[in-house]
Structures are given as structure tokens and as C-alpha cells.
Amino acid sequence: MVEWRTTDGLTDYDDAVAFMEERAAAIAEGRADELIWLVEHPPLYTAGTSARREDLTDPDRFPVYDTKRGGQYTYHGPGQRVAYVMLDVGKRGHDVRRFVHQLESWVIATLDEFNIKGEIREGRVGVWVTRNDKPLNADGTPREDKIAAIGIRLRKWVSFHGISINVEPDLDHFGGIVPCGIREHGVTSLVDLGLPVTMADLDVALMASFGRIFTDDPAG
User: What is the full DSSP assignment across 45-81?
Assistant: First the structure.
């Protein structure tokens, strides 16, 4: 069975990584159940394995953590729900591409609970929303903003790191990086889109939609 855990307050990033590594090892060895861990962090930037130094535009603004998850630079901070996903991908089919697609589908299904249409884009990591309420881009295409990030790491076929969804973070804090290396699009949140959504509301939606995408039983 998949355990769910929510930690109140702000979780230190190094402590979170240490916990995930320990739990992932325990899952791989059959000593612990799979876990979805919901946290918030103090303001910080993380650099994935594809991060480019030129995309860290304000290196002194917040602490910067090098991490071995996939992806580029990402911001974490208050008002953003981070869901750390420790699942046995080996028992779930040994298919990393399918697993990442499931994470994307989970985010999209969660946003759908609030009547928000999340979309994925070829060549762009994360989940995006079309901003028909904003002026068109210079080339006449609709504006698109990123609302969720995805970045995982596998060890012995157990995942850790995971997804982050913007509920009501300070969007100015994204200004110290080029989020995921994409300069031509912006960042948004549920509250920025005009929805009075709380962190608790999002957590309920995450739990409700999880079972429609994943099964609690890896062998199922």
C-alpha cells in the first residue's frame, strides 16, 4: 500500500533529501511501504542534472542546491506544494517513460478538479496552462504559463523527488532563475489564475486523483 504523509510548516531541503534517500533504500529492500510525502520548503533554488549556470540569473537571492534529479533549475518556496514520490517503478513495469507520463497525468487530473486545463508540451518539462486572459505573444500565439514542475531520480528502480504545483507562491521569486531553462514563457499559480484554492484543497485533489492514475498495489 502507498502511505501518505503531510508535513506542516517549512521542511529543510537537505533534511528532505536525506529522508527520501533513506526511505527509497528501505522500499527497494522491502523494509518500507511506498510513500507520497507532501511538504513545503523555505525559498530556494534546485539545480537538476541538466541545469545551465547561465539560467541562474540571481545566484545570491536564495540558497541553491545541486541535486541529481532530472531537469534544470526549479524554485521551491512557501505556497507551493511539493509532492515527493517514492514509488517502486520496478514493480510498476520498469518503464520510466510511462512513469513520467503518469506523473504528468496525475498533475493534469488534479488541476482538472479545479476546472483548470493543464497541458504538456513537446520539448518542455512540466505542466502548462494557456492564458487566454493575457495578450497574445508577438507571433500571435496564446500566452502559456507553467503551473507545475516534474523532476525525478531513480535508485534501484525506486523513485524519489517528484512534482511541485504552485498554489500561492510569490511568483516574483521565480525571477532569480530561468525556470526549467525556458525563457519565452511565464509562471502561474492556482491563485494567480483567480481560484481561492488552499493547500488543503490541493492535497484533497492530489489524493483523489492519484488512484485514477496509479494503483496502490504495484502488482495490480
Answer: EEE-TT--GGGBS-TTSS-EEE--SSSSEEEE-TTEE
Q: Is 186 or 5 the better-scoring residue by pLDDT?
A: 5
Give the separation between CA 149 and CA 6, rounded to whole angstroms: 19
Phi and psi dihedrals of 133, rounded to 5?
Answer: -85, 0
Which amino acid is residue 57, in one-letter code? T
CA dist., res. 153 & res. 106, Å (int): 18
Query: Could you read off the pLDDT of 177-205 as tens digits, one per residue?
Result: 876 555 557 899 999 999 999 999 999 99
Cell 533554488 belongs to residue: 45
Q: Which residues are catalytic?
A: 180
- Give me the pLDDT at residue 1, please: 87
pLDDT at 157: 97
Average pLDDT of the residues in 57-79? 91
| DSSP-derived secondary structure letter, 40 | -
Residues 64-89: b if buried by 16+ CB within 10 A, e if exposed? bbebebbbbbbbbbbbbbbbbbbbbb
